[in-house]
Amino acid sequence: MSIAKTERRPRGELARVLVVDDEADIRELLDLTVARMGLSADCAASIAEARGLLQRQSYQLCITDMRLPDGDGLEIVKLIGEEYGETPVAVITAFGSAQNAVAALKAGAFDYLAKPVALDQLRSLIKSALSLPRRDGVSDDGRLVAATGQLIGASVAIEQVRQMIEKLARSQAPVYISGESGTGKELAARLIHDQSSRHAAPFVPVNCGAIPENLMESEFFGYRKGAFTGADSDREGFFQAAKGGTLFLDEVADLPLAMQVKLLRAVQEKKVRKVGSAVEELVDVRIISATHQILKSCVDEGLFRQDLYYRLNVIELRMPPLRERHEDVAPLVAALLARVCSEQVPRLEPQALRALENYSFPGNVRELENILERATALCSGNAILVDDLQLAPAAAVGGSLGRDGETLDDYINRIEKQAILEALSKTAFNRTAAARLLGVSFRSLRYRIERLRIEE
Looking at the predicted structure, is the pLDDT value of residue 8 above 50? Predict the structure, then answer.
């Protein structure tokens, strides 16, 4: 790779944008918009012309049409990704061509625009691309981009997650984070945001399972004064609060179907309508979603819309459970003890550490933190012993995990079913009260009851 392909432009030199489109009027529109933003543009009408310009000049952004006379925009995306990795690429797709947009994002495109090109969306995209941090963590204007949290551990599994986060941070594609409860899905979402071009804008986390169904639309999209009883003034929703930044939809599988339809439109059109308003407004947010449920199974069972699933799950990031990375237990223990103990940090006896390393952690890192909080309260002196941990014997990896011939999924389903039945029994089969007792949403409990075929 040549020096010209990787070096940052000298201070004071205009950022350069490569425009690739076979329609002269579109090239002129993009060129004029770029110039009015104080930038410089080079235009090409084909892949061949673009390739020649890339060999002679470095660019801070490439905007390409999907349909070109000698190929398609995906070739440009792949070419720049392989040979000019620091240059983000945005593609222009035909109106309503969601399939092309998703294909481009999966191939590594930074973002996409739909025809006819809206100038405010174009300007927003250009600003985001030019503020994108380089792979060394420095933005184009020289500012160091710092992440607010960190993934602890040196296992292969967690290192793969770090690499994936770095890649996802250089894109605007919707991300779906899968993983069990307690694996750090929100932390991963925050790291993607902190390392992205949106790091200076808000990160807005939303627990979809905690919002009453009758308030969802107004909470997500906001409302106008007088839209309903009690609406005494205009109010912004989650989408407006995350303007320019990232909206993290946690437990997205808990959204009711009616709300899923409205969310699908907001994601596709990048527009929302406040309750009580007659007009839509543009929203510039990146969507990251997560759930501990298997979202594809929710689709198969009719609980989640397939079209929304494909729009949210453009790129999937899987967070590994702690039982798949036992070598990370020791550094996690050290970090968590330092966080839990405000004064003197107790010592973990070697036998206690081995017990933790042989534990299956159904609740993952969150459970490890709870175990350590309990152990620090129970231990006498300055040492944590095995007995202080109070680990469940059946969950030890080295021991008998479950019944003969029982897989891990069978074992987890059996334990989950037992816990739900106990909660239902304690509440006289009042599902709302049982959900509260279990610490899950009503919709989540209903889904689990159906999935596990629990009958009253």
Answer: no
Give the distance between the most distant pair of CA atoms in the chain.
78
Tracing tokens 């179907």 back to the chain, one arrives at: 257
Does the structure show a pLDDT above 60 at 152? yes
CA–CA separation, 367 vs 371, rounded Å? Answer: 6
Q: Token pair 């689709």 is at which residue? A: 299
DSSP reduced 3-state for 373: helix
401-407-408-411 Cα dihedral, nearest 10 degrees? -70
CA dihedral (166, 171, 176, 178) in degrees, to 10, reads: -10
Give 385: exposed, middle or buried? Use CB within 10 Å, 0-12, 13-18, 19+. middle
> What burial letters (b/e) apply to 410-432, b meaning 16+ CB within 10 Å?
ebbeeebbeebbebbeebeeebe
pTM across the whole model: 0.73
Q: How far apart are CA 59 and CA 418, in angstroms?
A: 59
> Could you tell me the two tokens for 190?
């925050």
pLDDT digits 0-9 by tens, 17-29:
999 999 999 999 9
**pLDDT given at position 101:** 82
Q: How many CB atoms lie within 10 A of CB 270?
A: 18
Using CA of residue 22, residue 24, residue 25, residue 28, what is the dihedral sign?
positive
Residue 32 has what pLDDT?
93
| Higher-confidence position of 451 and 212 | 212
Inter-CA distances, 303 with 252, 299, 392, Å: 11, 6, 34
Q: Give tens-digit pLDDT for 358-401.
A: 888 888 998 998 899 888 888 887 889 998 888 866 444 444 44
Do 192 and 145 meet the contact criterion of CB atoms below 8 Å apart?
no
SS3 409: helix
Coil, helix or strand at residue 317: strand
